[in-house]
Amino acid sequence: MRSRACIGLLLFLSACATSAPPPSARGTRSPRLANLQRAAALPWREGGQCVVREASHPWPVLIERCYQALDHDRIEFHDTAGRCAVASAGAGAMGVGLCVLVAPEIAVGAVIVLGVVVVAVAIKEELGAYELRQLYPEEAGTARGTKVSPQEAEAQRKPKPEPVGQDWRPPVPPVPLDRTNRASCEPVPVRHLGGNDPHNECADKIPNNSFPGWDVLVNGKNFDGLVLAARTLWEVKTDNFDTYPLDLRRIVLDDQIPKMQSERELARACGFDFKVAVRSAAHKAALLKRDSTLRVVVMDWC
């Protein structure tokens, strides 16, 4: 009896997978982006990694593969439309949940999430990366080995009607050109310079880092991280500053302060904020004593 119920559920899922999307949804978003945005409204236990991995599949397939990764303690399913009674018979709550979630349009009250949903980290990063690719398609495609033709890049950069109200965002500042006539303010993910794996690991863990595993080239400088949502470039210092003798501390500060000031100006020239992450409160205090205008934080993630 249970196996027949499961077969019925799978047949129902297959039917949903072949259902045509509503007319308003066709031609507006890529299926992967639509899946990521839809999944962002649900609570996930593992940071949304399964969703990012399966996002290119049809939504019913994604849900079937990632259903167990949902935070089931914070979500309730109700068959308000009466479409899941047959498909879930004998399959229990899991059948109802799968059936409700794979529906092309979820009925009001069918999915109830307890508490505020914070977008899962992996999904947020993927959406941020998508936004960057939309802003700078040619450069972002090159960094990932995907060639985008100049004509396609130009078409994607054509001005769009200005949004109003809550959709408004501050305009991107003018982009200066380098000697090769390339827009040097366009953030381009590039490989870590290498040679210091512990440093790179700390950089990858910058909260909400849009490109973990990469440096970001802006205005001729490789920065350790970029938080695209906050338009902030980061540098990470992993010195064991507390263990240095006073003379060495002075030498380190003499070297770091001018570089940080220069990096800050490069970031600001392209409309980005700039932050520095250090390992200890003593290192932070010493930097701010030299230049109180720097924005320095102590890493609690590394």
| E-strand count | 9
Indicate the multimeric state.
single chain
Question: Pairing-aware structural class of the strands and helices?
Answer: alpha/beta
Biggest sheet: strand arrangement: 6-7-8-9
Order of helices and strands: HHHHEHEHHHEHEEEEHEHE
Radius of gyration: 24 Å
Supply the number of structural domains: 2
Distance between the termini: 52 Å
Shape verdict: elongated
Portion of residues within helices: 40-55%
Query: What percentage of the residues does DSSP assign to strands (E)?
Result: 5-15%
Number of helices, counting only DSSP H or I runs of 4 residues or more: 11
Give average pLDDT, whole number: 75
- How would you characterize the largest beta sheet? 4 strands, mixed
| Weakly predicted, low-confidence segments | 1-28, 86-93, 138-151, 156-160, 162-183
Describe, in short, the structure shown.
The chain has helices spanning 2-17, 31-39, 49-54, 59-66, 92-102, 121-135, 137-143, 150-157, 197-204, 246-269, 281-290, and strands spanning 75-77, 111-113, 188-190, 215-218, 221-223, 225-227, 232-236, 273-278, 296-298. By secondary structure, the chain is α/β, with parallel strands linked by helices. The chain has two domains: 2-121, no CATH class; 194-302.
Q: What do you see in this structure?
A:
By secondary structure, the protein is α/β, with parallel strands linked by helices. Helix content is 40%, strand content 11%. The chain folds into two domains: 2-121, no CATH class; 194-302. The chain has eleven helices and nine strands. The strands form three sheets. The protein has a four-stranded mixed sheet with strand order 6-7-8-9. Strands 3-4-5 form a three-stranded antiparallel sheet. It has a two-stranded antiparallel sheet with strand order 1-2. The protein is elongated, with a radius of gyration of 24 Å. The model is unreliable at 1-28, 86-93, 138-151, 156-160 and 162-183 (pLDDT under 50). Residues 141-181 are annotated as: Disordered.
